[in-house]
Amino acid sequence: MQGVLFHINNGWLQKKKTKIAVQPYWHCKEELYSSKEGIIFRGRLVVPVKYRKEILKLLHVSHKGIVSSKIKAREYFYWPNLNRDVEEYVSKCKICQKYQRENQKEILINPEIPGRSWQKVVCDFFFCLKGKEHLLMIDYLSKYVELKPLTTSTTAQSVITVMKFIYATHGIPEELVSDGGPPYNSNLMMNFFREWGIKYHVTPPHFPRANGQIERAVQTVKNSLTKAAEEGKHLYVVLLDYTGCNQQNTCHHQLNF
Predict the structure, then answer these.
(1) Where are the transmembrane segments (predicted)?
(2) DSSP code of residue 112
(3) Rounded distance, CA 248 to CA 54, Å?
(4) Using an 8 Å Cβ cutoff, are 42 and 76 in contact?
């Protein structure tokens, strides 16, 4: 990148007169500039060759698919043949290949979209490979994800305690959806919903189409967490992908370039 930086500061020669390593940047030379973070192209950080593999690894920490990975990569970073490199990296991911779903073309029916965030949420449980049970809560509108560990497995009191903590941050939802299994069918949980003014709905576990996009969102998050747990990654690092965190700052901080 030193050659690119030199031309940014001193002017560009004709393409045929520049070094081979610099030529891929010649077509966008008018939109390149230097900053304290590095070289910037259209608001995106230009990544040097030696850091690209690590960037791809960090971008794929949640093990999303090729399309999602390319969208995320193009939002924050730039280098020649970025799309090709992302496609190749994701397609060769052994963890993704292991957990690839057989039926990826299932058509899901989308329910009515809420008018505001945290008006309607869906809850599920996620069992970490290390033996820790978590409550997974996703907002219907924004798809924002909350993941909290449960202190005493999936008892009603444990789930209620975690729910109160989440509600203190985002507000009390008007509606909550789950598959209807324990502990949601307990008297303690039903009393909690009634006292807090939450309408509770059940989606049959064998009829995911009724939940539309949110069911797909739940499965996507759980798949990402399962893959990360198997790799020994911290679950909350994966959630950065689902909480609107600036990925450019995250990667830049971890790689320090």
Answers:
(1) none
(2) P
(3) 13
(4) no
